Structures are given as structure tokens and as C-alpha cells.
Amino acid sequence: MIKMKKNGNNNKIVIPILVFISFVLGAAWTYLVINQLDKGSVLIGGNADNVTINENSISAAVDKIYDATVVVATYKDNTPVSTGTGFVYKQDGSTSYIMTNNHVIAGGDSAKVIFSDGTSADTNILGGETYADIAILTVSSKNVKQVATIGNTENIKLGDTTFAVGAPLGDNYSGTVTKGILSGKDRLVAVSLGNSGTSDYYMKVLQTDAALNPGNSGGPLCNVNGEVIGVNSLKLTQEKTSVTSTYSVEGMGFAIPIEDALYYAETIEKGETVKRPYMGISMLDITDSYYLWQAGITLPKDVTSGVAVLDVEASSPAASAGLQKGDIITKIDVEDATSVAKLRYELYKHAPNDKIKITYNRNGKEDTVEITLSEAK
């Protein structure tokens, strides 16, 4: 009984000690976990297993392109007319090459670039191509901070991370980085060269939901490795109206695949003009009923899709092949000619001197003719 009493007294002493020890160990464990979380790792089961907290950071990728990206300021008679973005894609000794969109520099006669550190340099405009929307500038290599790493679009998949670097709304926001995913590949987007609202041609582009705004034009679209896979060019901004409401389109930006951009850049670098094929006709979408009526063109009753021939230039390939005003072109080779933009897109896949087949409807009768293309003036 005495021993039991002594044991009872000892229990009264041991329990508070155990509580105190447990408190100290618990506090130490909590501190250790919090401290390791701050460092991006925790100790699990007594083993130093490093658990990385992934915040999906692309900062390392951005570092590979950031200083290669420039603001492009275009002037006409020393008066600013537009700003956009460009990037240094190539360096050859004392000369560095900058790629941008043709529509960024098209309205001016000179351009300068502003680098990421705020310094600027005058450029030499080598040239541009309207339908490809690619232009090339050169600067002295002594001004260049970084040259972009060029990637490719062959292996990129839908859902892969993409990001853009550019100067939305001018140089006040230069160096803006936006992130998204590849939303579409090999999209055909109808583009208008003027303000008529009609589509002049199609561009094959990459689609991304990375935010692109006015001023991003000509800037790089990159993959998660910081490699350039496209040249930002377009954004779908139109408003759509339903029965109940009007809503804006968001998150639909487009970039020219880098392979296509480099193809045209190589021609421009050489001082050559991109050679486009030529048929020698003026065209009109058959949906433009008012203009068809003005031109005196009547559609055959069974024709629901195609392109109307508005005029045929004398001595042109089309004239030599026998096309006439009022003919409705329904196919170019095996592709449907659903619009002027689609026909021109298919036509521009060819080179001067190529032969193409044109299927057309004249007065309700379908026929096919072969045309040997010449070079556009």
C-alpha cells in the first residue's frame, strides 16, 4: 500500500513533466514545418524528402526573352504614327535583326526601337510583306542586350503554357508579360486590310488566351521554355449580339507561327520582294448581293457558295484561260472557294508559273479551266 502511494505521488510529478515536454516538442515541430514550408520543403517521417511547392512560375522562361523584346515606334516625317512590339531574333556580326508586324511600320517612313533598359536606337527598315504581316528592321549589335531563342510549333500541344511579352498601349507599359495556354493550332482567321469590314484573306495562326492588347502586335509568343513560337498579330475584339444581350469576345489572340514568319523574314533580309501569284481578276463574295446587283451580275439559281468574277484584266492568265465577268468560281484545285479570302489564301499557296485548276459556274453550267499563274505586280 505504501508503494502504491509512492507510485501515486510519482505519477503526479511525471504527468506535468510529460505535458511540458510534449508542448516543447510540438512547438519545435510546428516551427520546423513552417520554416520548411517557407523554403518550399517539409520533413516527412523523419526523412529529408524535398517537396517542392509549384507556383507555376515562368520567370526563368521570361528571362530568356525579356531583354530581346523591344518597343517599335514608327514615324512619318518625324511625327509619331504608331507603336508596337518587336524582338531581336538574329545577330550577324555588327548587325542585329528585329522582327515585328508589317502593320506596325506600314504607315511610316522611319522607326526606332526602345530596349528593356529604356535606351533607344534608330533602325533601318529592310521591308515588310502585307499579307504575311511580317516586317524586318536592323540595328547595330552594340545596342542589343539579348537575342531571342527560336522554337518551333511542331510539338506544341493544345493546353500547353504560352506567354507574351510586349508593350500594350504604348511604351508606358513596355515589358508587360501575360500568360495563357495554346487554345488553338492552325486556325484560319479572316483578315481585313482596310476598314471596309470585308475579309481580304485568311491567315494561318496560333490561338492563345494570353492577354494581347493594342501595342502587343509584333511581339513574341513563347512556350514555357522561353522559346519564340509565334509573332503576335491579331486579336478578336468584335461584339456578338444574341436575342437577349450583346457581349464582347475575350481571350482570343492570334500569332503567326514562327516557321512562317522566318520564311518571309529570309526573303526580306535578302532585299527581295515576296513573289505572289497572279490570276488577273477582281472578285466579290456572292453574299454581297447589293454590289452584285450594281455590277449587273445574276447568280445561277443552284449556286449557293463561291466567288463572283467582277472583272478580268486583259492579257492576264485568267483572260487567256477564258474566264469572264459574271463567272462564279466554286473551287480552286480541290478546295472550295467559299469566299474571296479563302480563294486568295489557297491561291497564295502557289508560286508564279504554277498551274491551278479553277472550277466555275457560267449561266448554270459548271466547267473547269487550267490557269498558268504569273507574278503579281
Walk me through the structure.
It contains 7 helices and 24 strands. The protein has 377 residues and is an alpha+beta fold. Strand 1 (69-76) and strand 2 (79-92) form a beta hairpin. It folds into 4 domains: 1-53; 59-143, Trypsin-like serine proteases (Thrombin, subunit H, Beta Barrel), CATH 2.40.10; 153-258, Trypsin-like serine proteases (Thrombin, subunit H); 277-375, Pdz3 Domain. The protein has helices at 2-38, 59-63, 102-105, 258-269, 289-295, 317-321, 340-347; strands spanning 69-76, 79-92, 95-100, 110-114, 120-122, 124-129, 134-140, 149-150, 161-166, 176-191, 201-208, 220-223, 227-235, 239-241, 246-248, 253-257, 277-278, 281-285, 307-312, 328-332, 335-336, 355-362, 365-372, 374-375. The strands form 5 sheets. It has a 7-stranded antiparallel beta sheet with strand order 5-4-1-2-3-7-6. The protein starts with a helix and ends with a strand.
